[in-house]
Structure formats: C-alpha cells, structure tokens
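Input chain follows. Return structure tokens only.
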Amino acid sequence: MQSKIVKAVMVTGAHDVRLEDYTINWDEAQALVKVERGGICGSDIHYFQHGRAGMSVLKSPMVLGHEFVGIIEQAPHGSGLTPGQRVAINPSQPCQQCEICLSGKQNLCRSMRFMGSAQFYPHVNGGFAQYVAVNPAQCVPYCAEANPEVIVFAEPLAVCLHAVRQAGDLTGKRVLVTGAGPIGCLVIAAALACGATEVVATDISERCRALAVKMGASSAQDPRDEQAAAQWSANGGAFDVCFEASGATSAVASVVSYTRPGGIIVQLGMGAAEVNYPVGPLLVKEIQLRGSFRFTSEFTTAVRWLENGKINPLPLLSAALNMDEAAAALELASDKARAAKVQLVF
C-alpha cells in the first residue's frame, strides 16, 4: 500500500468548500492519476449549496467531482496503461457481481459506488484533487493531441448518449429537448449526430436558448410562449421524441401534449418530486415514457466522439478557474444567468 498527501477540493456542508490536504492510499492493483481538469456538475452545486444532492446527505467531509481527466502517474503491470498517458476517468464503480450488473445494466446497480457521491457512508470521494487512485478499468485513454478541456465533457456527454440510446433510432425524427442546460444542449448535439432531422429546444433562460442554437437546435423557444405551445400540441403533437432534460414540474407534464401518438418521451431531468401527470393523454396516445439514468458503455463512446470532433462541446464552457478558486468556481456555476459549464484546472 502506498500513500500520498495531495490538495483536494473538500465539501463539509452548505457553502463550506475549501482546498485542503488529503491523504490518498492505493495498492498495486490501482492506477495513480494526476488530475488535469474537472467539470462542475449539478450534483456538485447541490452539495455546495445545500450539503446534499437529493437523498444523498453529507455526513463527513468529501472530495467533490465526478467529471475529470488526467495523466497516468503509475499503473499496474499488464493493465495496458502507461505513465504519461492521458485518460478520461469513468466515475462509475458498479459491483459487477449482482444480477443487474451481469445483465449489462451496470448503471442501475444498487451497490454503485459513484465518485463524488454521499449516497453511501463512508462517502465515495471524487476526482477534484491533484491525484486520484482508481481501478484501471475506469481509465479510458485518449490521444495526446486531443484537448483536455474538451475530453472532460465525456461524463455528461455519456449521460446524453445513454438517453439517446433509450429513445431508439432517431433517423428522420423530429425531436424536442426541454431544458437547455449543459445536459440538454449535449442531448441536442447527440440527437443530431444520431440522425434526427430537426431538434427544437425550450428554456426559460435567453442565454440557454442561445446556447441551444449554437449546439445545433433549429430553434429555441421560451416554454411560456403560448403560441408555440399551441402549435406543438395541435393535431395530437408535433414531435416524434421528446427529451425532458429540465426536471421542472411544468416541463415534465407538458411534453405529453407535444409528443405525437405512438411517440417516445425520455425523462432524464431530475428535480421534480411530485408531478400532476397527464396519464390519460399518455395512455390514449400510446406514448412510451422511458427513464434514463447515467450510462454504461456510452462513456467510452463519448470519449471517442469528443476525441474525433464528432461533437464540439466548447460553446458550453463558460470559465476555467484554478483549483484554489473552487468556491468561486462553484458560486459561478450556481448562477445559471452567467454560466453553463465551469471547469477547474488542477
């Protein structure tokens, strides 16, 4: 067993984030990775703002972060990893032993140890540190010429690729994406890359709507626009597939009326605890409602797509701050009027 004292972005409670010394330990079966960049996610913001993310409540200090890339410092013999190699880190750590994992649905593993999560106690520390120790299977190498600020979008893009996969074949389909934050915008790009002929977006933020257009949406509307809503609801619904990426109560309920008979709704936005859901229209239109949670093999696909330029996420990058400015970076990322995706540089 080896150990190393590093600087890490620790959260101890609401609005209590600081850069502190942290001891990491690793054995000969693990890879040691020098972290280069990390992307701030919605769950990081929730831990920062509230000391919790949904039902996951902080009970002790935890290293934040699950979107990050780095450079191999040490790697086990025979792992295929070499020092100096650039890698994206898959933060998923499923048990690989339960019936769910063995069926290929590791994202649904009830024992998932997801990095930067307080779901279990002791908490699972994340990747916002100078160094992390991980299972070699979590490391996805990418070419040295690729830009780390691009590859660090692999985790959120993987979430979106999984959602698109849940929708099935999008070739020739007309698509609606409600919620044009980073996830919604990446869904737009992924849907177009998978054959959708038109993608329309909605968001209450003018800045988000502009980003949606930059990411490929043919148009972006304010969901409160009654004229647009009426057009989308006419004749049973205007869209073959709707991706609900906002988690807003009103949006979750509204997409049923916008979806054509026999269409598909993919719910990937989280947040709405209770919804007065239009079950009747869903039933009589035979709309399929499909949930989408995290990802499986899509993480590697996301790295490859970012590596070869199939998707350019950089319109979403609002700022990059040094790790000692983590609290300021989280404040900025929390302000949706000013920022989409904020990165930390280690």
